[in-house]
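Design review, sub-item: ligand-bound model
Attendees: FS, YL, KQ
YL presented the inputs for the EPZ complex:
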Amino acid sequence: MDRIKISGGNELRGIIPISGAKNAALPLMIASLLTSDTLTLENVPHLADVEGLMRILGNHGVDIAVNGRRERQEDGYSRTIHFTCRTIADTTAPYELVSKMRASFWVIGPLLAREGRARVSLPGGCAIGTRPVDLFLEGLAALGAEIEIDGGYVNATAPKGGLIGNHYRFPKVSVGATHVMMMAATLANGTTVIENAAREPEVVDLANCLNAMGAKVSGAGTKTITVEGVTSLSGARHRVLPDRIETGTYAMAVAMTGGDVTLEGTDGALLENALDTLRQAGAEITETPSGLRVVRNGNGIQPVDVVTEPFPGFPTDLQAQFMALMTRSSGVSHITETIFENRFMHVQELARLGARISLSGQMARVEGVSRLKGAPVMATDLRASVSLVIAGLAAEGETVVNRVYHLDRGFERLEEKLTRCGAIVQRVSE
Ligand code: EPZ
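KQ shared the predicted structure:
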């Protein structure tokens, strides 16, 4: 299993190219199941989760060509990939595949809309919380689907003439359930109105792609999305939007180590709340023609309280990284997690580096310390792992981050991007 060794203490200076967003690429790839034509996606990040989803889509009959060739490009940055699903080969998404990645459950929407049936394994629990699928099932039932759970699988069947548009209000905001409802409603009979929809930029990106495929989706990015059903969708070419979580992660790394880095190819409008929070903490952030420039000013790191919320609030996917930053602040900050009930696994690992953090329910109290000291650490999810990397960059001495496969799920060429900016980061294979 690979590990990452970090010798901390260097400032970050240079340019970091920001990749296409993992959490946009995954639903966009799944949307290829809605049409028999080719969906071409540009700027798809080269990540383990993307590769995993390609295997799942292949199982459903999607033919995949990377950069026009059929072989995989193993060493590339974000790529152009063509997805063609002439016919759905299999409407079952088996446990062995779905259990590895929760987002693969989302195939239920397109399969049901196009084929009238889907049998998809329940994704099961995950390290950051119980993560049920009740909202997906209620939403699809509102479109007329009959849902039954049998042997760990969800069996969903559409009425004879296909799904039927309806008004549905989510009792709680869910990114995944919003993606699935939107995709399912594109091919339903009549109009669907989704209320209390997720407003994340990735939802807007999916809606834009669906519209390029001939769907009639309006209101994405607001709380109410309207989808007028059409009889079929066509192919399209779409560019995956930049990864706002990768952007925020590197911005926090610079705020923590000090330095001057341009995050190229990103867009500050995707993460205004997080950038404002970082500014309050003492980073100077400016928009440039090519992206964002992050400079850490000379005033040290100020403590700032944050509460995670659905977009446009502070993202839960940046909570761990911000906590790493706050471990070096000049006071006490409070970080409250409201999205997932168990997303504090990084706390005990940050403590190994000398952080002072106490937990009380969903709130962490972080007392800044003047220095962190390197240590061996590991984490059980993607964002927690990267928070340990950025803490390691600012710690004295050597930090070894174990279980690097979590990082490979969501950060394209992490070591290379950091090394180019002066960090001493090395992947060690065993
Ligand atoms: C997406 O997960 C992201 N994943 C997550 O990023 C992100 O943390 C999350 O949205 C919140 O922003 C992808 O886009 C691939 P939710 P998702 O449904 O869609 C509860 C990362 O690190 N809920 O918005 O699974 C759920 O348990 C990942 O990249 C129900 O109760 O999240 C959670 O408490 C991790 N019933 C809350 O809603 C349901 O049926 C929000 O989850 C569905 C969700």
